[in-house]
Amino acid sequence: WAQDCLVSNITVKQDFDKYKFQGTWYAVAKKDPVGLFLLDNVVATYKIEEDGTMTASAVGRVIILNNWEMCANMFGTFEDTEDPAKFKLKYYGAAAYLQSGYDDHWVIDTDYENYAVHYACREQDYDGTCLDGYSFIFSRHPEGLRPDDQKNVTERKQDVCLLGKYRRVEHTGFC
Ligand code: ODT
Predict the structure, then answer these.
(1) Which of 57, 77, 146, 151 is most exposed, with the fewest beta carbons within 10 Å of its own?
(2) Could you tell me if the CB of 44 is within 6 A of ligand 1?
(3) Contacts of 2 (CB under 8 A, 6+ apart)
(4) What pTM does this model have?
(5) Any atom of ligand 1 within 6 Å of the Cβ of 134
(6) Is the ipTM of this complex over 0.90?
(7) Ligand 1: does its nearest atom lie under 6 Å from the Cβ of 56?
């Protein structure tokens, strides 16, 4: 078969349960967007508020103003869409000089207990493929993915047409 890589053909987690997704996730790998922001030591914590809205906070090492290195504290609110695994993420930083934005936030796959594959396409090309996107591979475990989950994750990287485009996200204790 040939993969068309159309954003509209990317499949997401069936019957995504945001309640089970709550809690802490450690980024283990990342495909960067144009103008990358979060470098490493990225940890995201998801929570469902009393009204059912999913929110998250995230930390990560960033370099701003060309060479000031710091730990960014970021916050986000997720807007539901007709697909339970596809959200719009409105995010901003604790300080005004940090990035803010409005991105897609798709959960491609997760078993809730060990791994998650996140995907966001920021800009589509004329042909419907993704021109500028980013993706995080998350683990519940700070040490990284379990060997059992690696096959799944590799397949999902291929599904989002980003196999080979990820880099490892280090956790050094900086944040
Ligand atoms: O690092 C980049 O290059 C782009 C990422 C910018 C988005 C950071 C916003 C984090 C806001 C808090 C939400 C946490 C959810 C994290 C899940 C995946 C990262 C968007």
Answers:
(1) 151
(2) yes
(3) none
(4) 0.96
(5) yes
(6) yes
(7) yes
